Write a sequence for this structure.
C-alpha cells in the first residue's frame, strides 16, 4: 500500500515550487495529494498548476488576478483566495501533513510560524525564516513537537549526515560553496559587473534573488546563520569551503576526526524528494551520479575580502540578536536594486554594512521587534540607495 502524503506548497510558481510539483508527479511510490498552492504574481502558471494537480485551494497574493483565476478554475471545486493574509491562513488546512515553504525572503516568516503552530511538518526552502527569527522558530518547533526538514542542498546534506548520530559527537559543520560565477576574481574585477553576469551561475538553475546572493556569497552567509539555528552550533564551528564542482553538498566533522559528506549531482530535486518523503527513502527517476564524470574535485578558502557579504554574515552570526534580521532586510533591498540596475554589484555590500552599523541592536528581539527592525532597515537601505 502506498504511503499517503498531503502537501501544501507556499511559492509553487518559483524555482523550488515548480520542481517540487515535478517530483510529486514523477514519484510512483508515494500517493501525493496537493492541498494548496500559492503564488505572488504569476497567476497564469498558478492556473496551469491548479488544473493539473487539483488542490483544495490556491492563493494569489496580488488581488488583481483573483477574478481571472476564479474564472479559469470554475467548476473544478478549487477555492480561490487572495492577499497576504490568505497565505498565513491557508497553512491551517486540516488535511495537510507537510508544508513546503518556498517563498522568497522575509515573506516566508509569518506563514511558516502559523504552519508550525498548526502542527504541520515543515520542508524548509526559505532560509530567511531561520536567519531572521531562528531562535523563535526553533523554540516554537520544540514546543509544538514539529520537525523542520531542510530543503537547501547544503542543509539537507548535513541533515542526512547527522541521521543516527548523537549531537555530542559533532565537532563542526562544513558548508560547501560553488563560489558562483565570479569565483577567483578580485574586487577590481567586479566594478562593472552586469546583472546578466551575476545571473549566469555555473552549476545551479535558481531564482534571480538567490542567484545574485550566490554570486555575492551572501547566500552562503545566510546558510551559515541557518545552519547555526537548525543544528544548534555556533558560527565558530562552521567552516565554508569553496568547491567549484558542487558535488559534495556539505559535510560533518565528528569529534574522532571522521568526516561524513553527502554527494550528488547539482539537482535541487534530490533534496526536495528527500524532504517530502522523510523519514523514508523512496526511489526516484533522478539522474544517478557517476564518479568517473568528476575525476577531479577541488577545494579552496573563500575570498572574504573580495566577497565582503560573507564576512558581514559571519559578523551578524556572531553578534546574534537582531543583527541577522538587519543583514537579511538590507540584502533583500539591495539585491532588488541591483536587479533593477539602480546600484552596482559592489555597492550592495557597502549599503548592507551601513545598515548594520546604523540600526539599533536588540539582544533578545521578539517577533514584533523583528518585524519593526525589518521595516526600519528596509527604509534605511532604500534611502541609502536614493
Amino acid at each position: 500500500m502506498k504511503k499517503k502524503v498531503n502537501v501544501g506548497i507556499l511559492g509553487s510558481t518559483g524555482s523550488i515550487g515548480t520542481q517540487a510539483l515535478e517530483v510529486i508527479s514523477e514519484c510512483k511510490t508515494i500517493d501525493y495529494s496537493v492541498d494548496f498552492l500559492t503564488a505572488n504574481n504569476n497567476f497564469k502558471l498558478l492556473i496551469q498548476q491548479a488544473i493539473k494537480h487539483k488542490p483544495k485551494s490556491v492563493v494569489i497574493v496580488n488581488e488583481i488576478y483573483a477574478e481571472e483565476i476564479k474564472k479559469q478554475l470554475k467548476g473544478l471545486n478549487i477555492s480561490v483566495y487572495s492577499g497576504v493574509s490568505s497565505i498565513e491562513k491557508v497553512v491551517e488546512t486540516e488535511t495537510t501533513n507537510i508544508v513546503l515553504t518556498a517563498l522568497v525572503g522575509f515573506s516566508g516568516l509569518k506563514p511558516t510560524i502559523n504552519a508550525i503552530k498548526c502542527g504541520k511538518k515543515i520542508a524548509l526552502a526559505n532560509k530567511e525564516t531561520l536567519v531572521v527569527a531562528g531562535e523563535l522558530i526553533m523554540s516554537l518547533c520544540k514546543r509544538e513537537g514539529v520537525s523542520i526538514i531542510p530543503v537547501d542542498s547544503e542543509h539537507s546534506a548535513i541533515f542526512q549526515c547527522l541521521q543516527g548520530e548523537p549531537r555530542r559527537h559533532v565537532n563542526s559543520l562544513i558548508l560547501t560553496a560553488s563560489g558562483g560565477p565570479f569565483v577567483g576574481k578580485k574586487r577590481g574585477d567586479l566594478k562593472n559587473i552586469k546583472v546578466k553576469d551575476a545571473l549566469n551561475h555555473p552549476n545551479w538553475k535558481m531564482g534571480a534573488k538567490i542567484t545574485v546572493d550566490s554570486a555575492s556569497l551572501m547566500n552562503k552567509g545566510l546558510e551559515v546563520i541557518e545552519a547555526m539555528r537548525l543544528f544548534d552550533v555556533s558560527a565558530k564551528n562552521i567552516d565554508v569551503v569553496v568547491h567549484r564542482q558542487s558535488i559534495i553538498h556539505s559535510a560533518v566533522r565528528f569529534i574522532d576526526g571522521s568526516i561524513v559528506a553527502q554527494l550528488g549531482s547539482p539537482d535541487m530535486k534530490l533534496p526536495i524528494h528527500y524532504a517530502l518523503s522523510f523519514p523514508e527513502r523512496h526511489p526516484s527517476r533522478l539522474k544517478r551520479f557517476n564518479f568517473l564524470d568528476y575525476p577531479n574535485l577541488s577545494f579552496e578558502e573563500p575570498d572574504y575580502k573580495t566577497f565582503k557579504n560573507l564576512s558581514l554574515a559571519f559578523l551578524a552570526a556572531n553578534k546574534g540578536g537582531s543583527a541577522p534580521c538587519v543583514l537579511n532586510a538590507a540584502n533583500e533591498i539591495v539585491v532588488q536594486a541591483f536587479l533593477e540596475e539602480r546600484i552596482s554589484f559592489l555597492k550592495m555590500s557597502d549599503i548592507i554594512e551601513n545598515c548594520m552599523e546604523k540600526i539599533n541592536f536588540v539582544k533578545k528581539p521578539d517577533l514584533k521587534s523583528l518585524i519593526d527592525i525589518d521595516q526600519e532597515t528596509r527604509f534605511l537601505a532604500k534611502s541609502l540607495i536614493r
Remarks:
- The chain is about 45% helix and 15% strand.
- Residues 162 and 252 are 8 Å apart (CA to CA).
